[in-house]
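Attaching the record inline, Q. Sequence:
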Amino acid sequence: MSENVKRIVFRSIPFSIMVIGAITMLVPFIWMISTSLKADSEVFTFPPTWIPSVFEWRNYPEALGVASFGQYFFNSTFVAIVTTLAALLLNSMAGYAFAKFEFKGRETIFILLLATMMIPFQITMIPIYMLFRELELLNSYTGLIVPNIATAFGIFMMRQFMRNLPDAYMDAARIDGAGEARIFFTIVLPLVRAPLAALGIFTFMFSWNNYFLPLVIITDESLKTLPLLISSLSAGLYVQSWPLVMAAATIATLPIIILFFMAQKYFIDGMALTGIK
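Structure, as predicted:
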């Protein structure tokens, strides 16, 4: 085997693995869409069919009419947008402080902050519930938003990129009389648009798909989010129809897909630059 052939073979192996992985991840999504367009009698046929014999488009309007779907959708959208905007501001401010300011105990505090990433939510779930009960934040939008507006991952991500920004930019602005707030908003933030976009997509996805936090602190039906609705549908609480469940799940994934394609360029650049830094 010639060297050129060996080089082509070795280069094709990673791409082949990525293609197989991508197809594997797409299979559940394609099955979800396929099931959402089937009749109830066709869902459990064997062998399973990928293409419905008759496309039941009425499953989508029926799913939208189940259990105040619009209110659940609004709740998820409002919480995810506010959480994302607040997280981008606070995480970037904290990352800037850890990257560019010298203060006593900075490295120790940062290490302790990173250590919190190893603590699963199931451990902090009861303390959060008790704290929110004392603060009267149960059954409120604030209770859904506050726990996710500043995270160790977000601070770490922004700090890793900001620490490599040239200090000359900030020093020149200080010489010209700019305050720290103006430096941050007019100089630093425009330079970190790519990692901000990546962090925004991660935060939006996490908030949109968050199931445990709303399950713990929300009992009011008017404040529940889409993950709780889909869980109730799959448990047969409102309907006994898997096509309707899959139709609701398909609708619930659309905002994330739209957001990703809108910010795809910045997301890829952000991940690449953050990894290099």
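Residues 3-36 form the longest helix (34 residues). Residues 91 and 154 are 6 Å apart (CA to CA).

More tomorrow.
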